[in-house]
Write a structure and sequence with these properties.
This protein is an alpha+beta fold. It contains 11 helices and 7 strands. The protein starts with 16 loop residues before the first strand and ends with a helix.
Length: 288
Amino acid sequence: MKNSPTIPKHDHDRIGIRIEPIDDSIINTPSDFHQPHRHEHYICILVEKGSIENSVDFRKTIVRKNSLFVSYPGQVHQLVKSTGVTGWVLAIDNKLVDDTVSSILQQSLSEVINLELGPGESRWFKNILGLIAGTASKDLGMVINSQAQVTLATAFIQQVAFVYQGREQRFTLHHSANSIYIAKKFKQVLKQQFKALKRPGDYAEILNLSVSHLNDTVKAVTGFSLTYLIQQEVLREAQRLLYHSHFSVKEIAVSLGYEDYKYFNRLFGKVAGISPGAFRKQEINRTK
């Protein structure tokens, strides 16, 4: 294999910060955003009215009135449709997000952030987006990078992390702080190492825990075993590569750490309920 499979980046990855108002005429007009695409920045969508249907890593997500949606760098995102929507979309280069905020978001126990906002929260996010837009050019779709805009956008993403952390703490009140820390640390290491490490014992060794303790703790917090979460992380990246690259299933298997691609085929079929080749054909036909 000459090159390791990679997913083409969306053209908008050249941005630092980008902000645009959205409505049905924009969301429902065919564009690059209606095809699955991968970003290396955070996409934040504030829905003031109506709803938007998204796909994140080939799974449907509905963002409703007075809600804030955030997709992470590296995820495959697709706008599907909207109904009576008004709101904003803000894209922030991950290099502009400080390490503390990035760590909070990347260690999220959820694969997407979809927050229902209270009236005060909704007003705050709407107002700061208005300020960001107000300091931009009249062409709101342009790339914007002034210090004022960076400061405002940084405040926005910091508040996202703060609000999300508060929601998550309410959800995990019946777990100890140490259990939450272990589960988040496991997910962080998993995202970094899943191509190389496939056994629960590998992660237990890194975290200096027994396999049984790590598995029991993570399962108590997330509802899923270590093996399940490892397989799901591999599946997500495999699906991204199957859709976005022209590499063979064998090449993709090797890039994900499986020298025995027949085993990879069986594992993908078991986890996804469909073979890699059938998944590729299905998704390409669906988005034509």
